[in-house]
Design a protein that fits this description.
Blueprint (H helix, E strand, L loop, with lengths): L12 H9 L4 H8 L3 H22 L3 H15 L13 H30 L16 H19 L13 H17 L2 H7 L3 H4 L2 H13 L11
Length: 226
């Protein structure tokens, strides 16, 4: 190294943090923090701000994933998964990230379960027959929203759910995927997703759909099955 070169570990903390926060995923963060003791100590002290900067880039549909996370924190009363991170609680930061990725794994698994047969024209319902496979985010958003509704249903609080930027097309998507889950998805897959409520009692979901259509000045749009 040229004697005039600046060693990474001699940079101010603010610049090191900026490098951490520009990472696109936690694999990059992990490799960076393990490259020197100074970078590791920087991570220990600032894990919360680094995690909050990287999570939105590492998790698809982060807004909807955050809604699900906060609903789970309510229903499970999880002290290790607070919606707001403590400044110095590294364990809470790690636990939070794990929960986000666990949810993402579940949702992505269902995406594969749904899209692969849809691509072959097998057992699909509604408008999803003609979906381009690259429109992955739209389906993932819908799955996150359904899971959030089911979690809040456990709290008897689904009626108060105000989903992120939800519009008429989103309600149609929710209804369509709920039908798929109800009529086309094996019981064990529904259990993995935590969406048993959609088959045990569909009326609460239809009631929620109707209330959202009504709030938009529409009626009879959900067309769910009772």
């Amino acid at each position: 190294m040229d004697s005039a070169s600046i060693s990474l570990t001699t940079l101010p903390v603010e610049i090191l943090l900026s490098i951490f926060r520009h990472a696109d995923d936690f694999t990059t963060v992990n490799a960076f923090l393990r490259s020197s003791s100074i970078l590791y100590r920087t991570w220990l002290v600032h894990a919360n701000s680094i995690a909050l900067a990287v999570l939105p880039k590492a998790i698809d549909c982060y807004n909807e994933a955050s809604e699900l996370f906060e609903a789970q924190a309510q229903t499970e009363a999880l002290q290790t998964f607070p919606p707001k991170l403590c400044k110095s609680n590294r364990e809470a930061v790690i636990a939070l990230c794990k929960r986000f990725f666990q949810n993402a794994d579940i949702v992505t698994a269902f995406y594969k379960h749904y899209v692969i047969p849809a691509a072959a024209g097998i057992n699909t319902v509604g408008q999803w027959n003609n979906w381009p496979l690259e429109d992955r985010s739209r389906l993932l958003r819908t799955l996150y929203r359904l899971k959030t509704l089911c979690v809040l249903h456990d709290l008897h609080d689904a009626s108060s759910l105000d989903l992120v930027a939800i519009g008429p097309q989103d309600l149609i998507d929710l209804c369509d995927v709920a039908r798929w889950i109800r009529f086309r998805t094996p019981k064990e897959r529904r259990s993995e997703l935590g969406l048993e409520h959609l088959t045990l009692d569909y009326r609460w979901f239809q009631k929620w759909l109707d209330s959202r259509w009504a709030s938009m000045g529409k009626s009879g749009q959900g067309q769910g099955d009772s």
